[in-house]
Amino acid sequence: MKNKGVKVGVIGGGVSGMTTAIIAAKNGADVTLFEMEPRLGRKILATGNGKCNVGNVESIEGKYNTNFSSYILSEYGIDEIRKFLAALGVLTKVIDGRVFPYSGEASTVQNALRKAVEDLKVNVVYEEVFSITKGFKVNDKYSFDRIVVATGSPATFGKDSTKLLSKLGHDKVDMKPALVPFTSSRENLKGLRGVRIIARAYLVVDGVEVCSELGEVLFKDNGISGSAIFDLSVKLARLTGYKNVDVRLDLMPEFSGYRVKELVSEVGLSGMFHKELCLNIMRNFEISKDIAFEIKNYIIKNVKLGPFNLAQIASGGLKVEQFDEKTLESKLCKWLFATGEVLNVDGECGGYNLMWAFASGMKVGEMVVK
Ligand SMILES: Cc1cc2nc3c(=O)[nH]c(=O)nc-3n(C[C@H](O)[C@H](O)[C@H](O)COP(=O)(O)OP(=O)(O)OC[C@H]3O[C@@H](n4cnc5c(N)ncnc54)[C@H](O)[C@@H]3O)c2cc1C
């Protein structure tokens, strides 16, 4: 039995907040959506390099920091998300497992969500929310029967609004930038700005290799970026209590050390890499006297997570132990829900973060009218 006319306040007009608002309004709720920016869904335009990678058809196994997301994603998987988008008029396509709007334009997703919000007569209030009290009162002037916190994270243009729930007893895991370039001292980066390679990148934390990723590495003035580094950054953001982090690059991951040595003598280093990379390898070689070793073990010393304004997501957020994994309702405060990135759920590159934002929004849109 749907609780028609129930007054729902949704804080945050990103993907998860708009999705919640749309489903709740379709279910007959009286929905108010709060957004501190002058427009809804600003972040969507930046996603997937403007193409908006909304999800992934591959298994979600091991793609998130926590199993907390598994139940909701088993109910609202990529097929349900694609159906939800289709109902809003967004056709999707799959490229190498990743799901994108068929148009190849993030604006298609942003416009469709906004239009549905408008068509369903969701009341949009462009105002920053400073307080939520038990009961529920928002900013001491708006009253609701249900509250949904969908405030996302400080990654790129965003805000950490987890403190809204601290007065209601909720704790958080500190948010750290993730899916972000690494910064490093200029050592080992000299002259390399703009050089792109495919390498296997190893994350070395206090001398121990924690994980590795095969993919693009892009050298920058003050650090390294690229898909392999982005994936390592999520793993690093989840760790605490370490002292030093290096990245080891295997510059020829498809060949053994022995074969690399042969190739250097057959072809010569200058025919194998960008000239600036050759110069850096030679500089290291002068110390070690083993060129194959330098190619297989190119070290970028003392890397750090880049700043929030370059990050795609935050690792951290509201402690998931304080929410029901099946309903996303707070265990501390009845009829309070949280969706999307504000929760301590983070996913790897490949559409897993938007998938969580959609799935959690769809679930809570149903729950608020129960
Ligand atoms: C550059 C970039 C590229 C990305 N690419 C991808 C990709 O291709 N695929 C993918 O899966 N993920 C991608 N992501 C991550 C993805 O965009 C986020 O995980 C997702 O948008 C989170 O959705 P959300 O609704 O939880 O939060 P958000 O989209 O951050 O929305 C939260 C909203 O709440 C508002 N808000 C915050 N606090 C308050 C307050 N106190 N009062 C009122 N409003 C408030 C914010 O202004 C914001 O509009 C990318 C992110 C970035 C930055």
Commentary on this structure:
The chain contains nine helices and 20 strands. It is α+β, with helices and mostly antiparallel strands. The chain has two domains: 7-168 and 315-367, FAD/NAD(P)-binding domain (3-Layer(bba) Sandwich), CATH 3.50.50.60; 182-305, no CATH class. Helix 1 runs parallel beside helix 4 and helix 1 packs parallel to helix 9. The site of flavin-adenine dinucleotide has 38 residues, from helix 1 and helix 9.
How do the strands line up in the largest sheet? 17-16-13-14-15-12-18
> SSE order, as H and E?
EHEEHHEEHEEEEEEEEEEHEHHHEEEEH
The tally of helices reads 9
CATH homologous superfamily designation of the largest domain: FAD/NAD(P)-binding domain
Structure summary, number of beta strands: 20
Mean pLDDT: 96
Would you identify the regions where 5 or more consecutive residues have pLDDT less than 50?
none
How much strand content do the residues show? 15-25%
CATH fold naming of the largest domain = FAD/NAD(P)-binding domain
What is the name of the CATH architecture of the largest domain? 3-Layer(bba) Sandwich
Question: Which small-molecule species are bound to the chains here?
Answer: flavin-adenine dinucleotide
Largest sheet: 7 strands, antiparallel
- Going by helix content, strand content and strand pairing, the class is alpha+beta
